[in-house]
Amino acid sequence: MQLLCLTDRDPADSLPGLDLLPHDVRTSPLSLRVPETMAARFDAILVDGTLDARRARSACLALAEGVDTPRVVLLPELALAALTREWGVSELLLPTASPAEIELRLRLLGRPASAATAPPPAVQAAGVVIHESNFTARLFGRPLDLTYKEFELLHFLAGHPGRVFTREQLLSEVWGTDYFGGTRTVDVHVRRLRAKLGEHEGLISTVRGVGYGFARARVEEE
Known about the structure:
Shape: elongated
Radius of gyration: 19 Å
Keywords: DNA-binding
Strand order of the largest sheet: 2-1-3-4-5
Organism: Leucobacter muris
InterPro entries: GlnR_N, OmpR/PhoB-type_DNA-bd, Sig_transdc_resp-reg_C-effctor, WalR-like, WH-like_DNA-bd_sf
Protein name: Winged-helix domain-containing protein
Distance between the termini: 40 Å
Pfam families: GlnR_1st (PF21695), Trans_reg_C (PF00486)
């Protein structure tokens, strides 16, 4: 399963049993506002309340607004009295849960087979091939070792070849409308992406005074 864990520490410290299971676990800060488009790429979202149940509650309430992906909250036994239906979670896990219990509860979250949808098609542009279903990106067959945000940024840009986006638009689409960081974040991630694209760094172009575009020259040639 593809799992997103909202936590401020290593998930293995919050739920040791999870580390023994073969699930793909991605992490993001507990304070992250998860866009619906991001949440839809995961089978479940784990909300870590083992250190701060109040912050976990706030995260769960935010997810309840427009996010359909099942949520599982991790809470210590002392905080169980605070958990109510208002949190909008599908399951609860204690930090001491065994791998077998974790696997069972995650499996019970699964949507009915009739509701299953085909994996999204690969995004292909200018030699870049991106598969959302397994979070892989290749450039002319070469695997790209990307962080989660680098993957999201490349996925968005490659999905709109030839278009130019302002830094504010990229922040909204990739980081979410509630992200409080500045546009400098976009510049930093673009620079890192270009470094990983190597000799093909020109695929991401800078439009002075506007923002960034992907494969603009190739689209214009067509």
